[in-house]
Amino acid sequence: MSAETRPNAAPALPLGRLLPLYAAQALATGATTVSTVLASLIMSNLGRESLSGLPSTLISASAALSAGLFGALMLRSGRRVGLGAAFTLGACGAVLGFLGARAGFTPLFLLGAAMMGGAQGGYQQARYAAAESVPEARRGTALGLLMLMSVLGSFLMTGFSGAVESLGTRLGTSAEVAGWLVGGGLLGIAALLMLLWTPIAPPLPTRARLSIGQAFAVPGVRSTALALATAQGLMVTLMSLTPLRAHHLGMDHGGVAALISGHIAGMFGFGWLTGPLIDRLGLRVGYVGGALLLAAAALTAPLPGAAWLGVSMFLLGLGWNLAFVTGSKALSRYPAAQGITDGLGYVAAGAGTLLGGLVIAQVGFPVLAHVCAVLALLPLVSAWRARKP
């Protein structure tokens, strides 16, 4: 009996229809890799080293503010309109950031950074579009493949770093500044890809939409938001502050880059495994696994030796992946809560990074890591409250 006729066979993913969406997400991740990740270096080169963290702060704040707005736009006008607008906003922001950085005009560069952050608050919701495009039994798999496309986009742009550097030389600027122009081009292509993508799920009719209050009153939605915000906040906090720990251990730039690469591999590289696993074993397994891995990452981070930092960063990425894919699959049932929940995740990330830096300055990195280990258990509440599957 063929796979198509077996009664219990899982339905096939419509990869042909999902391809433009997956490709756009890969390009968006690549754009982030070649632009916003190194924004602090551009601020330093602009003579504003004391404000080197400001672009990242603006990006997180803008993403938090825009996530709910883009979520509402997608409810009203559909995923294609909302995602296309987000990619277009990001492309314009990247170009403005490039022009501001090249001209040495800091306010224009910061405006571009804020627009890039606002775009991220929208196009990160592409995962819900992917989930809505498949039967519920395959939503974890669809989300996992989207994660895999993200890591491919990131590594692809890393491999083209030489070409970006050459472009910067031809333009009379640095590779970091040229990366913003490249990022704008990638996001522009992603916006065009939305013209080729036809969402399977149409916009919800007005009478079928839940308000934000109604959505968060549904059993399980608040606990799902708790898991997503916890995973996002802890991941960004430890990812951002672990390089400081590495520096204190005497690691050089290459060693820190290796830590980040291992972290990215954990975040995105195992989507082919975690997505189907959640589909097969259910939401509770994803939440429990994510919580335990996040706690293990926090507990191994302060152990002596650089090798433990590598283990910690990989576990941090993989734990985030499990919790994030699980929560995203669960929340795909409730579109009204998606944008606000994403905004909460960005708020948690910004607050965690800010407070984490203060904790390290006052009592040291190990205390921060142990606090994060306790907070990492919050998705266990989500596991207890989770609806099947």
General description of the model:
- By secondary structure, the chain is mostly helical.
- It has two domains: about 15-200, Growth Hormone, Chain: A, CATH 1.20.1250.20; about 210-389, Growth Hormone, Chain: A (Up-down Bundle), CATH 1.20.1250.20.
- The protein is about 75% helix and about 0% strand.
- The protein has helices at about 15-35, 40-45, 55-75, 80-105, 105-125, 125-130, 140-160, 160-170, 175-195, 210-215, 220-250, 255-270, 270-280, 285-300, 305-330, 340-365, 365-375, 380-385.
- It is globular and about 55 Å long.
- The two termini are about 25 Å apart.
Summarize the structure.
The chain is an all-alpha fold. The protein is built from 18 helices and no strands. InterPro entries: MFS (IPR011701), MFS_dom (IPR020846), MFS_trans_sf (IPR036259).
